[in-house]
Write a structure and sequence with these properties.
The structure is a single chain. The chain is of the alpha+beta class. It folds into 2 domains: 61 residues, no CATH class; 189 residues, q2cbj1_9rhob like domain (Jelly Rolls), CATH 2.60.120. Helices cover 21% and strands 24% of the residues. The protein has an 8-stranded antiparallel sheet, with helices on one face. It has a 4-stranded antiparallel sheet with strand order 11-17-14-15, with no helix packed on it. A hairpin with a 7-residue loop joins strand 4 and strand 5. Helix 2 packs antiparallel against helix 3. The relative contact order is 0.13.
Length: 326
Amino acid sequence: MHHLKRLDHHQDWLTWTQENLARGCDPAGVKAILLQNAFDPVSVEQVLTQGVLASASALGRAASTPMVYHARAVLRQDSPLSLALAPVERTQSGEARGESSNAQPVFLQDPANPFLASQVITPKLQLYLIADFMSPAECQDIIELGQGHLRASTVSLPDQDVQDALPGTVQLQADQTYVDLSFRTSHTCDLALLQHPLVEAMDRKISAAMGLPMGLSEGTQLQRYRVGEQFKAHTDFFTPQSEEYAKFAATRGNRTWTFMVYLNEVEQGGGTHFVAINKTIRPRRGMAVVWNNLTPSGDVNPQTLHAGMPVLEGEKFVITKWFRQR
C-alpha cells in the first residue's frame, strides 16, 4: 500500500497551497492535486479548513534561483481561468522527477521575468495560455526575419483525399506534403532553416519553458494569415496505423505538445477555435497557446480538433513548434 504523506511535513507543498489559495485558485482543485500526489486527506483538510499554512516568506528562497513547476490542475468546468502549479518533486540526487516527460509540461518561472500561465478548464484536453510569453520586440523581430521567406502552407493528406479533391486545389510538394487551397490558405516560413540567433534564442526559450529537450521538437515555423485566409478544423497528431503516420511519425513518434505564439494583434477574426469545447481564443501579441495532442495515457486525443479562423481585417502572424514522443 502506498504511504500517504502529511501535508504539514512538506514545507514546499504547504507554501504552494498558500500561494494558490491566495491568488484565487479553487480550493477543490488544490485539494484534488494534493490527493493525487499522495497526501493524507485528513492533513489536507486540516490545512485547508484551519488555515495552518506556512508563510511563503519564511522559506527565504533566493530570488535569483529559477523555480520549476509542473502544471497539474484538476479544475471544474465553468470555473474562472486559473492554473494550480505544483512543485516538482526531486530525487535524492537532485533530479526533477518527470522533467523530461512528455506527459506534463514544466513551466520554468524566472522571478526576474515571470509570466502568467492559466489553464482552460475542461476535462476534454490539456490546454494552457501563457500571457506575454514573448515581448513585443521579440515578436516584431521574428516577423521581420521570417516574412521575406514565406511559402504556401502545407498539410499531410491520405491518398484518397487527394483523389477526391477538386481539380487544381491540391499540389504535391517535395517533402510529400500538399498545398490544399480548399483547406489551408496561409503562408509559412521554416524559421529553423534560417539558422539565425533570434530563432535559436526563441527555440531555447520555448524548450526551457516546457521543460522538454530541444531534440524532441520540430523546427519552429512562422505562419502569416491575410484577410480571408484560414486553416480549417484539424488535429496536429498523426493518426496511428495510417498512411500519414507511416510517412511522418514512424521514426520520431507522434506529436505530443503544440506550442503556438501570436506575434501581433489582429484587428478582427483570426482566432483559434477548439471545436470540442466551443471556445475561440482571440489573438493577443506575445501570448502562447499550448496544448497536449495526446491524452495523459499517450493515446491521440481527437478532442484537440481546432481551426485557425479566417482573418476578417488586418493580418495574423503566429509561430508554432511541435514536440514529438522521441
